[in-house]
Amino acid sequence: MSQTLSDETIALVKATVPALEAHGLDIVREMYGRMFENPAIRDLFNQSHHGDAGSQPRALTAAILAYASNIDNLGALAPAVERIAQKHVGLQILREHYPYVADALLGAIKAVLGDAATEEILAAWGEAYWFLANILIAREDRIYHDQQHATGGWNGWRDFRIEKVIPESSVITSFVLRPADGGPVMTHKPGQYLTFWIEIPGHPSIKRNYSISSASNGESYRISVKREPHGLVSGWLHDNAKPGTILKVAAPAGEFFLDGAPDRPIVLLSGGVGLTPMVAMLEALVAGGSDVPIHYVHGTHDRSTHAMRDHVRALAAKTANVNVVDFHQTPIAGEIAGQDYDVAGIITDAWLVSNTLVADADYYICGPRPFLRHAVSALSLAGVPSSRIHYEFFGPADELLAA
Asked: Could you read off the pLDDT of 223-244 as tens digits, one per residue?
């Protein structure tokens, strides 16, 4: 495998951009159909993200188009490549799975584009696919190695026993997990997630990611799960998981995290269940004795949906440098401003810029896509460099292999 793509391949792949814009979604759906003929490959994927109503085919279509459009400037895709590699490790995707995707992708291009998919075009896409695949494989191998050799680390699926079930709000419940083998757990970076292999009777195996909502302690992890309307896994966890339940868990992964001891102000901004990685970050900052200004800003519907409020306030009370501001979009009867919440309504762009725009601050943002769009846009327009805006969203990302 060459270390660089040939000029001919770059030109041919870029020439396919108009065809991808017109037929990319059909190609991706055809590709998934071919891969899912193999049960071993099908089981790597979250089936709820696929099909006509699923979001993953559209996300993958956008990713392939981005790759083709930037194939002569791959540095622009570096953050996406790291996100993909981390997700693949969580899902336990291995180097031996990549040839199946290559065959399905090239076969789908030929099936959808017909005679327009010449041998030269297919050869170029084959070279381009394996160039990116080898980058991902190398990065994933390194992550697997680091996980296996870390204290308390592991590869594959490890059995964890639920130790505690903690109702946090009317919609969010926390689960404290300890290894069934009694051993330690590897240190995670606050903000990372665990991937779960869930077996629900009457359904194919399902994989889900849940952010770790606690700082590292070497002994256990905590996840805090929102019951989603029609959510198969979240509903099963809320209704069936109890102390003693065994869950299969992959080692912590994810590229969204607070790394080390910060030396400049931190803003933790969340909406809804997006608070889970923020609580882990806040716990780590307080436990580490950080003395930088820390702004914790959270928005939710009302007191009944407000998870971990008392816990966050207790953390803030331990140090003078943490400022907590809670928004309740529609306070319910009996709520008291200044006691149950700080501001009524949503976190507006104007409020965000006026109240958290601190010189050199790093922003960590997590929540639903509309929440993220507004927050990131407002901060960018206010002059915050993109290098200081870090964010995580829920749902399928632009993975090139699986989600």
From this structure: 999 999 989 999 999 999 999 9
